[in-house]
């Protein structure tokens, strides 16, 4: 599944659940963080997860849980605006935490749990 050289898979299937590794705001064509701005980073993560969902023949309605890691909770409101735009009116369960740092100096990372049911 994973083309990276790090010791993890892009996702793992366990019954009807699919656990997706943390998504960073990386442009898949360049391998770099898309921007230093939180909304652009959040949007790129949503683009990246959309590609995973398409690969699995799933939709955003099948996202049942997200765990969001932000390096600065002052970005929380702007992040929520982008997040809400991509989910519409049906949101998954969610946790959000501030962390000291993320890989590649990203401002945000999101882990996903999907349901095939």
UniProtKB/TrEMBL annotation:
EC numbers: 3.5.4.-
Determine the domain of life of the protein's source: Bacteria
Identify the stretch annotated as signal peptide in this record: none
As one GO molecular function, the record gives:
deaminase activity
Question: Gene3D superfamilies annotated for this entry?
Answer: RutC-like
Query: What family classification does the UniProt entry report for this protein?
Result: Belongs to the RutC family.
Q: What is this protein called?
A: Endoribonuclease L-PSP
Gene name as annotated: yabJ
């Amino acid at each position: 599944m994973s083309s990276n050289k790090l010791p993890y898979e892009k996702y793992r299937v366990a019954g009807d659940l699919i656990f997706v590794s943390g998504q960073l705001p990386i442009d898949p064509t360049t391998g770099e963080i898309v921007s230093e701005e939180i909304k652009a980073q959040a949007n790129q993560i949503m683009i990246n997860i959309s590609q995973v969902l398409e690969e699995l023949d799933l939709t955003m309605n099948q996202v049942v849980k997200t765990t969001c890691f932000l390096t600065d909770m002052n970005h929380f409101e702007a992040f929520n605006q982008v997040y809400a735009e991509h989910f519409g009116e049906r949101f998954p369960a969610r946790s959000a935490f501030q962390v000291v740092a993320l890989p590649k100096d990203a401002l945000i990372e999101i882990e996903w749990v999907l349901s095939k049911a």
